[in-house]
Amino acid sequence: MRIYFAGSIRGGRQYADVYAEVVKNMQLAGHTVLSEHVGNPELKETLSNRKIFMRDIEWLSQADVVIADVSLPSLGVGFELAYAAYELGIPVFCFAQASANVSAMITGNSLLNLSRYEITFDYVESVLSLLQEIDIPDEDERGDNGF
Ligand code: 6K6
To answer: What was the pLDDT predicted at 23?
Structure first.
């Protein structure tokens, strides 16, 4: 499956190691993680903002599913979730640490499928089992989402 993994960059890199663990395990399970750089703790700014935006939008449009870590408030992640769910009609699954104070615009939105995790091991297990279970809609069935 082609996965877009979204996680905070300028919103804070405190959980970059957690993102890296999730990305690594999705890859080990045979999935393609288009945005694997999000899990790179050494990530450096090399592209212009415009190029980052255009590339990430292109990858989102190629993705079968979006997995997002919403433990930190990130404007970029929030935008990607809305774009994927409402513009592209891609299934979106959000994960947040148990104690994270997540925006009501995420927690109150049933289309974004928020789950909580206490430890990284459980997070990885949840992501892998959900990827085994989900049924990806055909492209012509996308884009018909309500709130
Ligand atoms: C490196 C270090 C800091 O910034 C960079 C390069 N920037 C980005 N590279 C790749 N993807 C990015 C970058 N900035 C934002 N994104 C996308 O937005 C990612 O796909 C993340 O899911 C999301 C993070 O948004 P912010 O608002 O936390 O940066």
So the answer is: 97
Looking at the chain, list the stretches that DSSP marks H as alpha helix, in order from N- to C-terminal side. Answer: 16-28, 49-62, 75-82, 104-107, 120-133
Among the listed residues 49, 59, 54, the one whose alpha carbon sits nearest the alpha carbon of residue 5? 59
Give the other-Cβ count within 10 Å of 4's Cβ.
Answer: 24
For atom 19 of ligand 1, the residue with the nearest CA is 6
Model confidence pTM above 0.70: yes
**Which residues of the chain are under the pLDDT cut of 50?**
none
Tell whether ligand 1 has an atom less than 6 A from the beta carbon of residue 37.
Answer: yes
Residue closest via CA to ligand 1's atom 5 equals 45
Please state, in angstroms and as integers, the Cα–Cα distance from residue 107 to each residue in 17, 54, 72, 80, 99, following that order: 24, 28, 13, 16, 13
76 CB near ligand 1 (under 6 Å) = yes
110 vs 18: CA distance, rounded Å: 24
Any atom of ligand 1 within 6 Å of the Cβ of 75:
yes
